[in-house]
Amino acid sequence: MTTSLEQAQLLMPAVQKLADAAYDPLTAQYPSLALLLAQVPRSRWQFFFITTGIGVSLLLAPVQVAPTDQDQVCDTVDAALAAWHPQGHDALGDFLKFIKDRMDQDVELPAAIGSWLVWNLKQSQPSEEELTLAWPLGLFFLHSFKDWWDTETDDAPSH
């Protein structure tokens, strides 16, 4: 069983590996994403994918991390962001603000997450076709990080 702090320390390297591992399957699954990414430097994919992954994991932390551990977890993730990229913290702040603003407009969380990623990959307003990627990309991130902070093990056999 790992602790929330250990999970926080593992988050950045895990998201970096996922950014590499997810590129080919996601572009194969979504041809419109492949078309978009053909015009985007791989470093931009890495930066915004990693920022999105960190952001989604932090959105899920309040319900999965004990209140007594939350400050230390956030400080650990913040330090990893600062070590990773000088603009990491600002991009994360932009992500979190964008998500909050979209949720205030009754945009569902997966659509908000995916639209932030698509918008930043393109560096301009996405087309309607490009925005069809928002929902599946948002779900990909939510599914990928839904259990990240779950540090409890279930020793009971499942029936």
Overview of this protein structure:
The protein has 159 residues and is mostly helical. The chain has one domain (4-145). 76% of the residues lie in helices and 0% in strands. The protein has 8 helices and no strands. The chain has helices spanning 4-29, 31-37, 42-64, 67-84, 88-104, 109-122, 128-131, 134-145. Helix 3 (42-64) packs antiparallel against helix 6. The longest helix is centred in the first third of the chain and has 26 residues, at 4-29. The radius of gyration is 16 Å and the shape is globular.
Specify the helix fraction band: over 70%
Q: What is the domain tally?
A: 1
The parts where pLDDT drops under 50 for at least 5 residues are 154-159
Please trace the helix and strand order, writing H or E for each element. Answer: HHHHHHHH
Indicate the mean pLDDT.
92
Helices and strands: which structural class? mainly alpha
Helical stretch tally: 8
Count of DSSP strands: 0
Rg, rounded, reads 16 Å
Distance between the termini: 22 Å
- Taken as a percent bin, the fraction of beta residues is under 5%
User: Which overall shape is indicated by the principal axes computed on the Cα atoms?
Assistant: globular
